[in-house]
Amino acid sequence: REAAISPHISPYLPHELVREAVVCCVYVRDFDERAELQRVLRALMALMAPLQVPVTAGFKPDAFTMLGIDGKQNRWRLPPTVHSVAEALAWDVAPAPPAPGTQQDPIELDG
User: Fold this and answer.
1) Rounded (5°) CA angle 101-41-31
2) What is the pTM of this model?
């Protein structure tokens, strides 16, 4: 039940269409730490699997949202994510141990 610092999952569409579109924001301590991103991705995929909700979008920093880089049509013509799900799953990374004196934050799910 561990994933990240602050996950927030909410339906983007009405309840009956949740399987088709879910917005999920997960904040991590270090966006460049590939082992952490992969661990969070795998945890999120495990959480969503019983609901049959695929995880498809990828990872992007908050700056992308602030600059309006949230789709294919943005003024800088940048892709909406930095790392795709497929790319992150393919990384050959060793699990990152928690920093000394810290522990990983658990996911808190409502209901």
Assistant:
1) 60
2) 0.66
- Could you give the angle at the alpha carbon of 35 between the alpha carbons of 80 and 24, nearest 5°? 40
Upper half-sphere CA count for residue 15 (Cβ side, 13 Å): 0
Beta strands in the chain (DSSP E): 6-11, 22-27
In one-letter notation, the amino acid at residue 49 is A
CB 3 within 8 A of CB 108: no
State phi, psi for 12 to the nearest 5 degrees: -90, -25
Among 30, 42, 35, residue whose Cα is nearest residue 3: 42
List pLDDT tens digits, range 32-42: 899 989 998 99
Pairing mode of beta strands 22-27, 6-11: antiparallel
Q: How far apart are the C-alpha atoms of 9 and 99, rounded to whole Å? A: 27
